[in-house]
């Protein structure tokens, strides 16, 4: 029983922000797609909630850049071009479609949608649409409202910079969640060890320990990393370096 417990239990209980019981207003939701990195970020109330890998347009049919809106949401949309029924295993749209008003279209040409080939996600392969893993599109479809803003750009820069280029401000410093940690034992023993890095991309580390009832504030999540403050330490924490002792 004194062996280490892996991160999953801790993340589920503490680090992953709790979903609201009611949908947020559309004005609070922003999706940013970077076609240079094939990443999609979902922001709510100015804070990053989740980031996903996506497939985007190939060189001959690139995904258009610009500021757009989710104008419809369709479950099991048929693939009319080839007469494939909605929800069929061979439907390249998957079973979720969120239409965009790109180039004056009415959500019937460009979309964020699923796929029938999971290995295609992450590649520049589509006719201009944004393709997601089916599990990911299900998650996003259930949370994203029609009217939400979608920003698309090819850039080697941050999501915040992309948003700013379209006149959208993201309050990335706003906490996602601030939660006290407690092991419930009442002993006051050290329960959590955090390996805090100054950046997710470097190898240098520094270690800090957290006592029970320490408050950890999560400011941002990115690919399994958590930007946190705790015990006066600020930095990025990887799931690989969080454990219950």
From TrEMBL:
Alphabetical list of SUPFAM superfamilies matching this protein: L,D-transpeptidase catalytic domain-like, SH3-domain
Keywords from the UniProt entry: Cell shape, Cell wall biogenesis/degradation, Peptidoglycan synthesis, Signal, Transferase
Signal peptide: 1-23
Coiled-coil ranges (or none): none
Active site positions, chain numbering: 113, 129
All copies of domain L,D-TPase catalytic, residue ranges: 29-153
SMART domains named in the record: SH3b (SM00287)
Known pathway: Cell wall biogenesis; peptidoglycan biosynthesis
Boundaries of every SH3b domain copy: 181-245
Protein name: L,D-transpeptidase family protein
